[in-house]
């Protein structure tokens, strides 16, 4: 069971073709789509270096945040990607600018691939 008051870590599970959610280091649930609040985009340096060296993928990149049921209407949003062979961080799809945080994120599956939309809202839009 996921505690909504604690951060989760979400990564795309290549074996199950879903997003896996870990809380306190343990995988607790899998989703085909989910929403996060107060998002951090994280890449483990050592894990990425191992991928580059061994050419075998491992879990070393994902999003951290609080699981929420929906996201507000964005004042701005960008599609986000990560490819360990091209980037050392998550980046915006269109500009390739590094992204470290966003107010919210919407994660979903599209044609068998994990997709991420970083969502930014004006503070006046956020309730409670």
Explain how this protein is built.
The protein is mainly β and 128 residues long. The protein has one domain (8-125). It contains 1 helix and 9 strands. It has one helix at 45-54, and strands at residues 8-13, 18-23, 26-31, 33-43, 61-68, 76-81, 91-92, 101-110, 113-120. The protein has a 9-stranded antiparallel β-sheet with strand order 3-2-1-5-4-8-9-6-7, covered by helices on one side. It starts with 7 loop residues before the first strand and ends in an 8-residue tail after the last strand.
Oligomer: single chain
Q: Please, what is the average pLDDT?
A: 92
- Termini Cα gap: 24 Å
Poorly predicted residue ranges: 124-128
Note the run of SSEs as H and E: EEEEHEEEEE
- CA radius of gyration is 14 Å
Give the beta-strand count: 9
Write out key terms for the chains shown:
128 residues, mainly beta, nine-stranded antiparallel beta sheet, 1 helix, 49% strand, globular
